[in-house]
Amino acid sequence: MASRLNPYVSFAGDAKQAMEFYEGVFGGTLTVNTFGDFGSEAPPGYADKIMHGQLETPSGFTLMGADNPPGTEHKPGNNFAVSLSGDDADELRGYWEKLSAGGNVSVPLEKQMWGDVFGMCTDKFGIGWMVNITEAGA
């Protein structure tokens, strides 16, 4: 899989409805994982909230979205990040190093409960980035 860049939108508890709306607009295949899909690790009240949703459209668009996790503020206008994902760990780690340099790391780039290596940062220009490295062949 080649690396790709796409928008990632955060929602205030209505990610499922929003992502289903976008599926109706653009068509394609929507996959969602709730916080509860990962068992006892779901924060209280979040079992049915969307931890990650991804819409792949026939036109080649990819839109990702999720409900804001507990303890994070939802501010329209500040609910958007750019996602980099793929299985080329060296390429993606290189992007991470450059994007996070001089910025603020909110989630270190490390193995997560869903099995991928993931990190979040805000670059020195105030742009939010998410980097997800999928294990090759997964």
Tell me the layout of helices and strands.
Blueprint: E1 4-11, H1 15-26, E2 29-34, E3 50-56, E4 62-67, E5 80-86, H2 89-100, E6 104-111, E7 117-122, E8 128-133
Parallel strand pairs: 1-4, 5-8
Antiparallel strand pairs: 1-5, 2-3, 3-4, 6-7, 7-8
Description:
- By secondary structure, this protein is α+β, with helices and mostly antiparallel strands.
- It has one domain (4-133): 2,3-Dihydroxybiphenyl 1,2-Dioxygenase, domain 1.
- Helices cover 17% and strands 39% of the residues.
- The protein contains two helices and eight strands, in the order βαββββαβββ.
- Strands 2-3-4-1-5-8-7-6 form an eight-stranded mixed β-sheet, with helices on one face.
- Strand 7 (117-122) and strand 8 (128-133) form a beta hairpin.
- It is globular and about 35 Å long.
- The model has no long low-confidence stretch (mean pLDDT 89).
